[in-house]
Amino acid sequence: MKFSFKNTTQIRFGQGQVDSIKKQIPGDRKVLLLYGFGSIKKNGVYDQVTEALSGFDWLEFSGVEANPTVETLDKAVKVAKDNSVNYILAVGGGSVIDSAKYVAAASCYDGEGWDILEGKYRVAKALPVAAVLTLPATGSESNSSAVVTKKATQKKRVFSSPHVQPVFAVMDPDVVKTLPTRQLANGIVDAWVHVCEQYITFPTGALVQEGYAEALLKSLKHLGENFDNQDDLWRANLMWCANQALNGLIGSGVPQDWGTHMIGHELTALYGVDHARSLAIIQPSLLRNQLASKKAKLEQMGRNVFGLPDGDSLAEQTIEHIEAFYQSLGVPTQLTEHESEKSVAIDNIVDQLEQNGMTKLGEKGAITVDEIREILATAVA
Ligand code: NZQ
Ligand code: ZN
User: Fold this and answer.
1) 282 lines ligand 1 (CB under 6 A)
2) How far is CA 78 from CA 83, 136, 353, in A?
3) What does the pLDDT read at residue 70?
4) Low-confidence residues of the chain, pLDDT below 70?
5) What is residue 1's predicted lDDT score, i.e. its pLDDT?
6) Cα of 15 to ligand 2 centre, how many Å?
7) Pick the CATH number of 10-174 from 3.40.640.10, 3.40.50.720, 3.40.50.1970, 3.30.1950.10
8) Which residues in the chain are classed under CATH 1.20.1090.10?
9) Which residue's CA lies nearest to atom 46 of ligand 1?
10) How far apart are CA 292 and CA 129, in angstroms?
């Protein structure tokens, strides 16, 4: 395949790097500091950031929720417009960074911000965005995508634009120290599935992309196996793995799936399932459903990532190992959050996917409504 690859985000990696904000942001900028519900006030990151911003004209917007909603973010857009903000600094996980991307784009647009998520407006301009990452998982700190939910209609949508690619990202692994176990496990699973979505398709002969994907999977597996022995190196490795999993490199020039993500997003929109947990619920069932077309790659993963011996059942064993990996991290692999009959939940999820036009998923568009129903039949408890 032909491809074009450019990742323009300046990474400032390591302990104490928050201080570099003062050099990275031009001094004449009016900065909007965006954050969530206060974890950064408890772990000292807020103090570090405000110290670094001391010479700047800045204001803040807090209360960005996990799986951010356009209803909340449009309030931040109003603050940005009313105060002539011209730089957005996100301090948080994927939700806050994605939000900064939305606010940056919607602040330069006169129409309804949701148009961006519906594809009615293609982002032509955005304020500069930068990120201080506090949760390694999504890779949002150095990619150009964002996921926003409309609470009123339970729609969770993605947009991408080079205009919202963060200018720089501070990645201090010390922030991981205050993450609850659940968020840490989620981070490993999300990064893992990001690699899988760009790797478990069909053999490509792209030695660099496939080899690097396997290196990331082996690293994440190692981090999961050493979950109880976290030290500085463990935290730094996790942060770098999650970043590299979705910074555009391993997906360049190779087929990509993203079916697990698209179905998973509906579990979050409908039942509030954490993003990573939605993926662990869907992926094993999806892989079993697509075993025939993904067999060669699953076998390659079994050999090169899990060290499994060759044999007729190698692909199926690889899926079992993936499932066991999630379970070893305390992440369930079936949906239990729906409060209705199983059949009603399946109908609801399929309805949402149909409304969003998500009925030709997978690297070959082979996951249609019938396959989605089969996948959900085993993924929903
Ligand atoms: O709100 P606060 O108080 O900050 O608490 C957050 C939040 O409740 C907490 N947290 C973050 N850093 C912490 C911390 N708690 C203690 N110590 C710290 N250092 O963690 C909770 C979850 O944060 P969130 O940002 O929601 O998690 P994550 O990074 O997993 O982001 C999930 C969002 O990213 C989207 C997902 O759909 C979801 O909306 N994604 C974005 C992608 C992208 N832009 O490329 C790709 C992904 O596949 C994903 O779809
Ligand atoms: Zn993800």
Assistant:
1) no
2) 8, 29, 31
3) 98
4) none
5) 83
6) 26
7) 3.40.50.1970
8) 180-379
9) 138
10) 43
40 vs 178: CA distance, rounded Å: 9
Report yes or no: 322 and 195 within 8 Å, Cβ to Cβ: no
The tens digit of pLDDT for each residue in 295-316 reads 999 999 999 999 999 999 999 9
State how far the Cα of 142 lies from the Cα of 169, in Å rounded to an integer.
Answer: 7
Ligand nearest to the CA of 178: 1
pLDDT of the residue at 302? 98
Alpha carbon distance 369, 357 (integer Å): 11
The reply to whether ligand 1 has any atom less than 6 angstroms from the CB of 260 is: no
Please give the Cα distance from 22 to 5 (Å, whole number): 29
Separation in Å, CA 158 to CA 112, 165, 166, 266, 268: 16, 14, 16, 12, 13
User: Torsions phi, psi of 136, nearest 5?
Assistant: -75, 120
C-alpha 300/C-alpha 284 separation (Å) is: 17
Residue located nearest, by CA, to atom 50 of ligand 1: 147
Q: Which atom of ligand 1 is nearest to the CA of 136?
A: 29
Q: How far is the CA of 106 from the centre of ligand 1 (A)?
A: 21
pTM of the model as a whole: 0.98
Structure tokens at 202: 């069909």
